[in-house]
Design a protein that fits this description.
Structural class: alpha/beta
Shape: globular
CATH superfamily of the largest domain: Aldolase class I
Strand content: 15-25%
Number of domains: 2
Strand order of the largest sheet: 2-1-3-4-5-6-7
Radius of gyration: 23 Å
Number of strands: 17
Amino acid sequence: MKNRPAVLVNPPITLQERYGKLSAAGSSLPPFALMGLASYARENGFESAIVDAEALRLTVDETVEAIVALDPWVVGFTATTLSVGRAAEVAEKLKEARPDLPTVIGGPHFTALPEPTLSLYRQFDVGAFGEGEETWRELLTGLRSGDGSSDLAKIDGLVLRQGPAVVRTRPRAPIEPLDRLPLPAWDLLPELNRHYQPSALRQHRSPTSALVTTRGCFGSCTFCYNSVFGRRVRAFSAGYVLRMVRHLVERFGVRDITFYDDNFVHPRQRLRELFSMVRAEGIDLTWSANSRVDVVDRELLTTMRESGCWQLSWGIESGDQRILDHEAKHITIEQVRRALDWSHRAGIRNKGFFIIGHPMETPETIAKTIELALQLPLDDFQMSFLTPFPGTQVFAQASQYGTMTEDWDRMNMWTPVFVPNGLTEDDLVSWQKTAIRRFYFRPRIVLGYLAKLDSLARWRAFARGALAVLGALLPGRAAVRPKPVEAAPEPGTTPALTGKNGT
């Protein structure tokens, strides 16, 4: 086993499946969680490899071939709700090729539904919930020792098979400080600048890349799932983030970074320290990020613009205050107007994230949301459908406010799976098209994009974005792949996981 790798897999989901008709404007981002797991395992003596089937656009069979070619001794999968069925397809075929190969499932979907997921998909021998680096390292140690499932039961953060039962061990404590983790394993990915790009409308200069520099979100939005990292924000220090930035700049020539943190602006002092260091080192960098309207002020936004920030994306969600309050967004429409005005005056482009199909949604509240989007100083716009992901408060309450199709394969936020009382799925699709048409087919927006087209790369990005918008307005719905079978065949016995209670 010493020179055989522990292989980590990002399942083969296509941009079409992830974004529907807006796939041409979708993002292809590095698998940050897998990069962290691989890096930490490698630092602790375990040879590691990553198969990012999504980035490489592999089929299920091609993914299995790529894994088998690496001759792994254990395989771990990450999965969202959308991709867990596809991960199971890969694991099932992998078991046919290598019946003795231990398979592990983790990620946000498994953390939300650990026991049901492991019970449904018997292709997976064990599951890991919550923050993964320490759990993965200890699991690899336990599997290598070969002491069986009784020994693995001592590891925090696992779900195991014990006879006919599925049992969960204790939750794992959060990693602190985060700076003790090694830098992500970019070297284990396919070519960064070729296979990973933010959406066409989030690119400013090339090459561009992405980072996540915090874990957790202090927000309590009922539609947001944050059980993996929790509601307490833990941040890599400014010095650590600088190391990541410097690595991307020096190794890959990156000139622009999108920070995909839930709220990159918090904590403020770290933000100021980071870009003070960037300026001191003379790093030529522009950047964009996500923010909340209740954590900024005029002076901070001016400082951010002077530090290279060119765009901020804001979670606005609805133009109806009652809906914002019901979903514990803890912001006001007035705060939205004020923050975006400050940002616009500072010279930062504004992108607004909106959702329709909330509990208590009506045609009147949707109309208010669209009108707010048209009134705000927005340069870009996104409207998705409310999706009650497993583990969220709105998932538990969905039946009180409407009807829900609990089909994991459709939960991509671009296919309506929850329909509020008084509305239909066709109503939601029609309102989304109306919003897209009214926002983008305005001279100010079109001229704003044309003014930025100063290179061939930007023309291509604009063309992809424009085609995606036009495609979203065409009749019909996005194709949905078949729902996976409710139970999978019993895989071959996995000796490394077999103890006195069996698997």
